[in-house]
Hints:
With 192 residues, this protein is of the alpha+beta class. The protein is 38% helix and 18% strand. The protein is globular and about 60 Å long. The chain starts with a helix and ends with a helix.
Amino acid sequence: MADPKITLISLAKKIGERQLTISTGGNVSTKLPDGRIVITPSKEHKSISDLEVIDLSIIGPKGDLIDGSKPSVELPMHMAIYSALPEVSWVVHAHPPLAVAYASERILPEESPVESSKLRLALVGSEAPGSEALAKTVAAEAGKGNNAVLLEGHGVVVVSSNPNDAFLLLEELENLCKTDLARKLLRLSILR
């Protein structure tokens, strides 16, 4: 079994390289079998793509910092999701440009009949980053079976039982937004 810290760093780098978040934005975590959480740190000085294992934060089951850097401000959201969904072991919060635009406009992208999607989408209103209100709201939506939650004016959160699916959900969400936007633009040009 791969070291979860190395897997987390690989996932964070991939998210950054694919431009699915801004350089110092976004956070990734995994819940270990013993209940500890490994999470990316507060991004005061490093891009998500430049993180190393030594930068990660290890958090105890009650939210206490066991080792590493100051954790992401979004730790309460990650912990709330893990508490509500014991089967989830990966949480990704990112800022993919089109998905953020859709979230900011309070619009969910529409699927077309030719798209095969594992996405189950929800949209939540604006809450302060790092707040308990945001944590509770996102965890509640994920608890309803939604694996991708758009946060108005903020970003997106995807949840999964493995890192590959978490990445694919994030990428699929951004691609769905691109396709939906293209369809809407084409409809406008045809109507002229």
